[in-house]
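[scheduler] slot 2 assigned
[scheduler] job type: sequence-to-structure, two independent chains
[scheduler] chain ordering preserved from manifest
[runner] begin chain α
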Amino acid sequence: MDAETDATASLLTAAGWKQRLVFWSGAILVGLFISALTLLSEQAVVHLRAFFDRTPAGIWLISPLGLVLTVWLTERWFPGAERSGVPQVKAALAIHRDLTLRQRFVSFPIAVGKVALTNLGLLTGASAGLGGPAIQIGASIITTLGRAARFPLHYLERGFILAGSAAGFAALFSAPLAGIIFAIEELGREMEEKISSLVLTAIIFAGMTAYVILNHYIFLEAAEVTQPQGRAWLSIGYCGIAGGLAGGLFAFLLVRLGQRLSRAGRRTRWALIVLFGLLLAALATLSGGRTLGTGYPMLKQIVNASQAASLWFPLEKALATLITALSGVPAGLFVPSLSVGAGLGADLHHWLPLAPLQTMVLLSMCAYFSGMLQNPMTAFVLVMEITDTHELLLPLMATSFVATGTARLLNPRSLYEILTENYVRNLPQQA
């Protein structure tokens, strides 16, 4: 029986419809989880900022103690939920046939822990994004339900992980195209026809669920921008090189410092986590609270041109994000990095205004993101989708590739590729 005949036959069987209903339910559940992650994070940031405004000195107690508590809870009850989540998903894709071993990285408890602990980290003053957690949550939920429903191994090996990851990404950012591109560019360099249909279906169901609950399609309303004209085209190289170097330097430091930290003894490591908490408190105090949380409020203000950012904001936010990532708390990099890139664009415009402010802000967002992850297609599609600025497609595309090329001067290999090796290296040898 060929593939087409097999697919037609499955439409007429109870088992086939059972599998579809389970998969659709899983995609809807991903949308619910991502909505909960988003709504809780908004409240966490609001409450922490209110506390900081009332009692600024309190952050010096909350950050170190809260960081230690979050890391301890993660390691004690939710191992595998630490840090971003993207390297864990990539490590899960490297595991073949041993579905029990794969549960170290994608499981329902990890999805629950990721929601709770990412928000706990935000309450401690961490610079925590939601992108990585959303990807791991999506992969965990759909893979768990697929395994419970006894889907064919072909789907469980790669299809459900890719579908869940793309669904989580797309539901968070309201960016279905970027979700598909990310699944191809970062997680699966090539996708079969069956897997592609799974990804599309998961994105539709998860995205619509998140849309109904969160009531927004455009993740980030941008001020009006125009296509660069004449001399303004020079901003592509300017923003691309500067953003690529900045993003590449962030990735370089995260990898090198992370490697040193992994060799530290247990007592030294816990002492460093306390120090990281104190550093986060210092950055929050020096910046007036600008480094707290995901960075989305500042990102929104910069992109909307509703408030001028401090020239120090990109450095402050990048340092807070680096410290958070090194601490090991569940936290993503995407939204904080977009805010760093936006602030960098405002700074670049202040120093050399080659193009309108908002054009340089969006180009630098794309450049920093590309430089950090070396995923140029994901970067320009994501920025274009979340800001609804399709007229900047060509400049964003060119900037992302300039930035990626620049970043590779510092890091010949991508950030997530290196971080994934740390997980794969410790796996038992598979037959």
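[runner] end chain α
[runner] begin chain β
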Amino acid sequence: MLPSPPREDEPVTSAPAADGDGFDQFLREHQAPLIAFLARRAGDEDAKDIAQEAMVRLMRYRSQPADQLRPLMYRIALNVLNDRGRRDSTRQASAHVSLDQDFLGLASSEPSHDQRIGHEQELALVRAAILQMPERCRQVYLLNRIEGMSYSQIASHCGISVKAVEKHIGKALGLLRLKLKQSGISREDQS
């Protein structure tokens, strides 16, 4: 009577020995070195699976002498390793994402819809506040913040002193803060 092949969830080393041929002992003795050999080539996680598959395939040759089983086992293990490499290559396994992995890497860098709407509302509020500023104050603020002009450049452009530019910028910022505060939006809320 032939021994039944091991189930997938059953380790190879627990397979029944056929008439005490020492095959099980051989597997027990060589399992750890085989896994270490494969771990250097495939990583720890895959090494155990590859070793298990190699030992299952080796069961076909259990009647061979022990001195022939060892090189055969390593050859089978390398073949399994190569087969997996080819399979992973054709399936582009490196491009796959496990469902168990954290999806933070897949999150969009774009703001959410709610964030975009909130920013658009804030921007509309700031535009309205700028339009409500006194004309000279608005002109000085926009030359500085939008055009990127320095205070001295603004002073010579508008024909006013640098001190007057500083006062207009301060007034503009104060008015903006007040409008944002009245609408319930403040710098503390944005952090």
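[runner] end chain β
[qc] chain β: Residues 12-92 form one domain.
[scheduler] slot 2 released
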